[in-house]
Amino acid sequence: GSRAAASLAALVVSVTAETIDTHVDELGRLDQIAGDGDHGIGMQRGARAARAAAESAADRGAGAGTVLVHAADAWSDRAGGTSGALWGVILRSIGETIGDEDRPDAKSVAAGVAAASRGVMAYGKAEVGDKTMVDALVPFSAELTRGVETGEPLSAAWAGAADAATRAAAATADLLPRMGRARPHAEKSLGTPDPGAHSLALIATAIGTLLAD
Ligand code: ADP
Ligand code: MG
Ligand code: MG
User: Fold this and answer.
1) Could you say which architecture CATH assigns to the domain 2-212?
2) Which ligand is nearest to the CA of 46?
3) Whose CA is nearest to atom 9 of ligand 1?
């Protein structure tokens, strides 16, 4: 029922915050190479605020979609930075798509991730190949949709999509940045993956492990 879905939504946000806590220094170092070094701390601030908002919404009896929308607003309010606004777009898109009614099925989760992918591209104007989180999010969404459409359960489709995101994030090392703060330092960033693509892949992988349990 909707209670279980809301608890799972809050757990997903909590796992996201734990993942960022574990990798905060690594993300800061990655962003130091061609950016301003704040990707770890910004993601940590956003994800922790999102976790608190998600837990309190779930405690008040909100449904899964509303839990994610509250998490989205807290993340973008508290994180600062480009990635904070974009993670707000991601969580809000998924929350609005799955809604509160019932236990969200795999198709609506995949549709929510597809909406998130379109929303991030509309908000940030980056396309695949610009060396941003879009380079991980687009293949993640495509693989999740493909898996769900072939009838895989959500946990299996998500795991395959997280692997695709991980490979795609690693492959951004070969790209020159065309968006965001890294653009003026394009050559310096060659050989290093995009921080936002890397953090997205870490989060997707951790949620995949949660869904498999
Ligand atoms: P800021 O760049 O404001 O310091 P962060 O360091 O938290 O914010 O996030 C940087 C990440 O944000 C980049 O690695 C990239 O993945 C992502 N990013 C930056 N600009 C865009 C954009 N226009 N569209 C999508 N993602 C972007
Ligand atoms: Mg930064
Ligand atoms: Mg910054």
Assistant:
1) Alpha Horseshoe (1.25)
2) 1
3) 83
Nearest CA to ligand 1 atom 4: 81
Q: What is the ipTM of this complex?
A: 0.99
**Cα 165 to averaged position of ligand 3 atoms, centre (Å):** 23
The CB-side HSE value for 134 (13 A sphere, CA atoms) comes to 21
Task: Give 207-212's long-range contacts (Cβ < 8 A, gap of 24+).
Answer: 207/12, 207/15, 207/16, 207/158, 207/162, 208/155, 208/158, 208/159, 208/161, 208/162, 210/11, 210/12, 210/15, 211/154, 211/155, 211/158, 211/159, 212/155, 212/159
pLDDT in tens, 2-18: 689 999 999 999 999 99
pLDDT tens track for 134-161: 999 999 999 999 999 999 999 999 999 9
pTM for the whole thing? 0.97
